[in-house]
Amino acid sequence: MMQKGLSGFRRFLDVMETEPEIQDAPDAVELKDVKGRVCYEDVSFHYSDDETTVLSHVSIEIPAGKSVALVGPSGGGKTTICSLLPRFYDVTGGRVTVDGQDIRSLTLKSLRSQIGVVQQDVYLFSGSIRDNIAYGKPDATEEEIIEAAKCANIHDFIMELPDQYDTFVGERGARLSGGQKQRISIARVFLKNPPILILDEATSALDNESERWIQHSLEELSKNRTTITIAHRLSTIKNADEIIVITENGIAERGTHETLLEKNGIYAGYYNMT
Ligand SMILES: Nc1ncnc2c1ncn2[C@@H]1O[C@H](COP(=O)(O)OP(=O)(O)OP(=O)(O)O)[C@@H](O)[C@H]1O
Ligand SMILES: [Mg+2]
Question: Which has fewest Cβ within 10 Å: 49, 73, 187, 197?
């Protein structure tokens, strides 16, 4: 155990010594009492190693508790838009605000503590299922963990495993299906309980059964939270408060499901195709 621990600890030190590009401003303040209004104000962006503009003068306003869905062809910039919110990258023009505060004026820690992310590719680290769920809230009680797993529709499955919540997953642990892993990652976010959510819908094919369960969990999760969804299945976003079609030329269309169908443009084309 000592040996293993030491090599892990060395890797940990290496990671901790890396200077992150994005740092707190010297006068950064805590993001507190979050309502969850998110605004992209005239945002432009290009990746630093590449001068090609990815986003040009994009404005999106999401009132607290409302949802926006991003759709469009691969490479349009959907994931990029989402990664600006937790400041994985900083905008190169304009600004992103939460409750009216420029996110660059906030501490990264307080900003990120208010944002939950469910990603396309779920990452489980090696450890027990319990540890994997508790990741976003290490001091969570057993009851809270079980409650989160129930909300994510994964509790019953966990109880059928030989070691239940102690079942080891990750590199050398139990093999879980894509859908099961995703539900564990949804449980994480339920436990963290953030007011703002980013959902990058899985592109990989799930069977109908797990897809239905996941859809159900995600709907539950996004209730009363400000949500940005990157949707690959249009059926899942009909109810979004605003749907934004992103192409390489920027925002091509925006509106509700009904108005976009009426418009009979790109979105309607996608929708009628499926
Ligand atoms: N880390 C990066 N460094 C440089 N360029 C990047 C990086 N990530 C994405 N890009 C470029 O930015 C553009 C937008 O990519 P992005 O990942 O946001 O698209 P997307 O709409 O999410 O596509 P998909 O539907 O395939 O997920 C693409 O041209 C891509 O090549
Ligand atoms: Mg993407």
Answer: 49
